[in-house]
Amino acid sequence: MKPTRRTAAALATLALGGTLATTAPASAATTAGAYNGKCGTGYDVQDRTEIHDSARKVIGTMYVTYSRETGQHCAVLVRSNPGTRTFMEVTLDTDPTSGKPERDYGSFSTYAGPVYLDASKSGAQCLEWSGTIDIYYDSVRGLCS
After folding, report:
1. CB of 129 within 8 A of CB of 140?
2. pTM higher than 0.90
């Protein structure tokens, strides 16, 4: 394991007999289930859809974002309570001229995606997005022009 500056500073403090107060890195100071810029810089949230379990508890949120700079939409599915890896899938497509849906799926602990789509090239009127966490699923057709 390569030592980091933080590790080196902590070891130096301990070697000098001092006490060490640790703080979480800024990147870890994120809210579970929040978008937190996962699509990258310049992407603004356009819509969100919650995934519910059988007890109607929110277990995750799909975010659809857009970047004026790139002209692309992005979708990401974020779990409300990250933990054990479980099956997750997020898809982003156009309607009615569906081409090939962009998707990310697999066994994830925190989020699936991001997936990107340039809807302007398809002649589509709406976007469609869907998300799955374990056996729970939801889909939306929206952001229509």
Report:
1. yes
2. no
Which of helix, strand or coil describes residue 10?
helix
Give me the architecture of the 29-142 domain, per CATH. Answer: Sandwich (2.60)
Q: Where are the domains of the chain?
A: 29-142
Q: Which residues contact 37 (CB under 8 A, 6 or more apart)?
A: 43
The helix or strand, by DSSP H or E, that contains position 51, with its residue range, turns out to be: strand 43-52
Q: Cβ contacts of residue 70 below 8 Å, gap of 6+? A: 42, 118
Rounded CA separation 104/127 (Å): 17
| Per-residue confidence (pLDDT) for residue 20, from 0 to 100 | 35
Predicted local confidence at residue 145, as pLDDT: 76
Between CA 33 and CA 80 the distance in angstroms is 4
Give the integer Cα–Cα distance in Å for 128 and 90: 11
**Cα–Cα dist 144/51, whole Å:** 21
Q: Do residues 31 and 79 make contact, with C-beta atoms less than 8 angstroms apart?
A: no
